[in-house]
Amino acid sequence: MPTEIQNNKKIDIKENYILSLSQQLILLLLKDNTTGKNLIWATDNYEKYGKGYSKNDYMEIQYITGKNGNIIKPRVEKSKEEQQLRIQQKAEVFTPAWICNKQNNLIDNQWFGKENIFNTEEEKFWITNKNKIEFPKKKEKKWKDYIKLNRLEISCGEAPYLTSRYDSTTRKYIPPEDRIGLLDRKLRIINEHTKQKNTWIKYAIQAVKSIYGYDWQGDNVFLARENVLFTVVEFFEQKFNETIKLIDMVKFAKIISWNIFQMDGLKGVIPDSCREETIIREDLFNQTTEIIKCLGCKKNDIHKHNGIYCKVMDWKERKIVRFIDLISNAIQSNVVKPKKKNRK
């Protein structure tokens, strides 16, 4: 029988619930570490709610809690009209869980050197491998190595490739033991190799530090952050049958606020932050005005934008870096340099 995906839990994590746990927690999920301010809406889908909901407005806590606590919803909870509008505006189409599983399996097949590690694929579902995951002995790859593997989901939406709390196309909740996301797999491994809560937290922190994702629209970034955070919570509660401590949730939220970020993926900057500059020149006879467009936008050069370049945390080096610099460094490290000829 295929994996039975349950539908007895709500997939939408209510912002009022997060606020009831801790104001600090929800503020961290709203924070943009590049600007030091909050995420921006970056969509006009919310303008109907009035002041504070325009696409360039910041997502403040009062706009998503209290009487406004049901404004942000996962895509499957949005109306058909809203879904179609977002498809037209930003080509927002979410991927079914079974396709995410197939693609994530391809990554693991290569790393492990064999197939059907976490599950066996069927037509549009999967059968979870209930046995403890075995690691390649000859290649000296250990479970701790798998936890540290860096993974990035581009244009992540609600992060279905990182965590599959629910199928983003069918509204069905997926229990932790049957999830197929990149973070889900790491947490499963941690469940299998740890017994003490403090050890579990230690390696779960490493796992969360290793996964990244970005999206243009602020509500998607916020929802993705919620999903990553509560994935950790749900795996912990399944493992230890008790509620995770708030202090630990805050630790994870601080990491998530760095790793799941808002960005124009084509430019590497905060959405709509590139600008035109007006230069006024005066001499004895007249005054001239010159409008200078963003050079990066004009030449389609990711390194020459005048917008706000997005920053992420390099956890290994413990320093803040520009995302585009990570891309450049990765490209340079993979370039095969010609060997120097020995001079006689």
What do you see in this structure?
- By secondary structure, the protein is of the alpha/beta class.
- The protein has 11 helices and 11 strands.
- It has one domain (1-269, 320-344).
- α1 (15-21) crosses α2, α6 (182-193) runs parallel beside α8 and α8 (218-240) runs antiparallel to α9 (246-259).
Beta-strand residue fraction: 5-15%
Secondary structure tally: strands: 11
What string gives the helices and strands in order?
HHEEHHEEHEHHEHHEEEHEEH
Shape: globular
The number of helical segments is 11
Write the layout of secondary structure elements.
Elements: H1 15-21, H2 23-30, E1 31-32, E2 37-38, H3 80-90, H4 97-112, E3 119-121, E4 126-128, H5 143-148, E5 151-153, H6 182-193, H7 197-209, E6 211-215, H8 218-240, H9 246-259, E7 260-262, E8 277-282, E9 287-292, H10 295-299, E10 311-314, E11 319-322, H11 323-333
Helix pairs in contact: 1-2, 2-9, 6-7, 6-8, 7-8, 7-9, 8-9
